[in-house]
Amino acid sequence: MNAEVRPMRTPAEQGLSGELKNLPASGGARIVALRAAAAKAFNDNGLPHRRVEEWKYTDLRTLVREALPISTPAQSAVVEAHARLLVDTDVRRIVVANGAVVPELSDLADLEPGLTIASLAQALAAGGDAVARLGTLEPGRYDAALALNTALARDGVAVSVAPGAKIERPIHVAHVFSGKAAASFARNLVVLGEGASLTYAESFEGPEGTAYQVNSATEFVVADDASLDVVRAQEEGAAAIHLSTLLFEVGKAVKLNAFGFTSGAAVSRTSLYARLQGADSAVSFNGALLLKDRQHADSTLFVDHQTTGCESRELFKHVLDDSSRGVFQGKIVVRQPAQKTDGRMMSRALLLGDDAEMDNKPELEIFADDVACGHGATCGAIDDDLLFYLRARGIPLKEAQSLLVQAFVGEAIETVAHDELRDALVERAEAWLKARG
Amino acid sequence: MAMLDIDNLHAKIEGEDGKEILKGLSLKVNPGEVHAIMGPNGSGKSTLSYILAGKEDYEVTEGSVTLDGEDLLEMEIDERAAKGVFLAFQYPIEVPGVATMTFLRSALNAQRKKRGEEEISTPDFLRLVKAKAAGLGISQDMLKRGVNVGFSGGEKKRAEILQMAILEPKIAILDETDSGLDIDALKIVSEGVNALRSPDRGMIVITHYQRLLNHIVPDFVHVMNKGRIVRSGGKELALELEANGYAEYQQDAA
């Protein structure tokens, strides 16, 4: 037997442990205890490395070289200039800069009946129902990124939709980083009451040349019969490290559709945990990732079917240029009571660069006996016959490639139900292709 | 000088021990002429069409092909299309996610740009497609779908003719356009092709069967076998082949 030997603590781990000595004090006894527990978990376990199965391809011990100071508030004029993503859409925008809500750039007036939006800092100060659910969605295993977020995040957005309220206009939380390299933490909570509906968008962006770090976590509590669309766009600056955690607790007969567009950051990891607790819900988690140079993006999903008759779908499309690397780890667990589960995942990668790499790791753990589950993965170059057909009609090589790449990621982007947001994402994909030249 | 001049063309499948498929093929096509190429399976008909369009799986080892005196074999695939070469595919490929309208417009504008012409305006383009599609029985729904996605065999062939009608090539090569068509579809496709016959345009119609040539009446018929043209004649040659088969040519060449 090999004893688990704790390796030497890295400078980054030591630095982070230093930060964890000064935990925020807001939010009352439960939240304070939550932060302390998260800090202890980090101090005990540190950053994950390649021998930790869920982080096998994204070794944070190696990738996070230093602990940066915690970010300080940014000037709103600078932030405004940087917030470019999804700006042409008719959405209710809330700007979070360096992990803190910027009220003067946020549209918090005339909220629809049944809709409550507060900054998490305010909600924590006020206590009460707004934050009663914060930190209650647990991944069920140690997650370093989430632990750091729980311990260190002071602000973010808390959204709540009353039972039965259908919010037509999407909410867009624009996370912007500006200023000198620092570590920014934001924590968000989205609660949908029974039969409520909402489209929630998150975007992430920051300066190109700065090696900053962003750690975001969002908890989604979705009650019975509710309908939630989540749309994410991650276009962090090229030197950034981006860690995201998404946690979903799903009631019965829920419709949930989450899509993520990724083209930013040097290293990014999105961990998604979904617990399907109610029967007959339909969820889908999809992604389009466009990477180049030496970018590394890891999408790790854990979908937990706990009860009967739920359907889950995952469709991830990676376009990998140069020596970029995509990672897809999808795990579907079907618990013994979760009969009639229908769970499927599919990962497709288009390798444009000779040194590009895609790592796929699908896992199915099935304890029920009447289920339909499946997974598939493909990797390949652009089909030569397709290219020939387009070129034989006069379309030059680069343009033909662009059309085919757009069609490839389009299949995933099309899962976004909201027209304007979908069009905006199609434009982001086009912009990426244009920049490729 | 002929518009399209294929002279002593030898070609093999790319690679060290690639098989030689064309073994000294010569053919001249002038504007306004329709040439039919017939021949048994494996005689090299489709290979000829792919080489003219620029498919990269073949290597020309000898001979030349010129279009209006320019060396066609030196040109990129898309450059050939812009110069007026159009291949109607035997098996048109499905392109999921690229709408037919987007595809047609990209192709037309890319060709125009290459020739130094203005891009077509949206209203003009829509009018053009609408007019051409109606005659070929192509619905608006088909135009919105991905290129050839979910099309029947006949619909795919009609879509090829629509592309040709919009791109208005100088030299059109129709590779077994009749394969997989029933009588009615054959009629629609043939009428579409006949509508595109023009004093400025040459056509090469590759087929196994004389049937197509009842509808698209050629000026010349060539028999191809083992990578060469072994006999040429007028349209009556097609009837003779229909009656006697290819056996005599296959024996001659053996």
What does it look like?
The complex is a heterodimer of chains A (437) and B (254). By secondary structure, chain A is of the alpha/beta class. Helix content of chain A is 22%, strand content 36%. Chain A is built from 9 helices and 19 strands. A 10-stranded mixed sheet of chain A has the order 2-1-5-7-9-11-13-15-17-19. Chain A has a 9-stranded mixed sheet with strand order 3-4-6-8-10-12-14-16-18. The model of chain A has no long low-confidence stretch (mean pLDDT 95). Chain B is α/β, with parallel strands linked by helices. In chain B, 39% of the residues lie in helices and 28% in strands. Chain B contains 10 helices and 12 strands. The radius of gyration of chain B is 18 Å and the shape is globular. Chain B starts with a strand and ends with a helix. The relative contact order of chain B is 0.18. Chains A and B meet through α7 and α8 of A and α2, β7 and α3 of B.
What brief labels describe this structure?
heterodimer; A: 437 residues; alpha/beta; ten-stranded mixed β-sheet; nine-stranded mixed β-sheet; 9 helices; B: 254 residues; six-stranded mixed β-sheet; 39% helix; globular
Q: What's the short story on this structure?
A:
The complex is a heterodimer of chains A (437) and B (254). Chain A has 437 residues and is an alpha/beta fold.
Q: How far from one another are the termini of chain A?
A: 54 Å
Most strands sheet of chain B? 6 strands, mixed
List SSEs of chain B in N-to-C order. EEEHEEHEEHHHEHEHEHEEHH
User: Going across the major beta sheet of chain B, what is the strand order?
Assistant: 6-9-10-3-11-12
Strand content of chain B: 25-35%
The main sheet of chain A orders its strands as 2-1-5-7-9-11-13-15-17-19
Q: What is the structural class of chain A?
A: alpha/beta
Low-confidence stretches of chain A: none
What's the topology here?
The complex is a heterodimer of chains A (437) and B (254).
Chain A: H1 11-19, H2 28-45, H3 60-63, H4 76-82, E1 92-97, E2 100-101, E3 115-119, H5 120-126, H6 144-152, E4 157-161, E5 171-176, E6 183-192, E7 197-205, E8 213-222, E9 227-235, E10 241-250, E11 255-262, E12 267-276, E13 282-291, E14 296-305, E15 311-320, E16 325-334, E17 342-351, E18 357-366, E19 372-380, H7 384-391, H8 397-413, H9 419-436
Parallel strand pairs in A: 1-5, 4-6, 5-7, 6-8, 7-9, 8-10, 9-11, 10-12, 11-13, 12-14, 13-15, 14-16, 15-17, 16-18, 17-19
Antiparallel strand pairs in A: 1-2, 3-4
Chain B: E1 4-13, E2 20-29, E3 34-38, H1 45-53, E4 58-67, E5 70-71, H2 77-83, E6 85-88, E7 95-99, H3 100-114, H4 122-135, H5 140-144, E8 146-147, H6 153-167, E9 171-175, H7 183-195, E10 202-207, H8 211-215, E11 220-225, E12 228-233, H9 236-244, H10 247-253
Parallel strand pairs in B: 3-10, 3-11, 6-9, 9-10
Antiparallel strand pairs in B: 1-2, 1-4, 4-5, 7-8, 11-12
Helix pairs in contact in B: 2-3, 4-6, 6-7
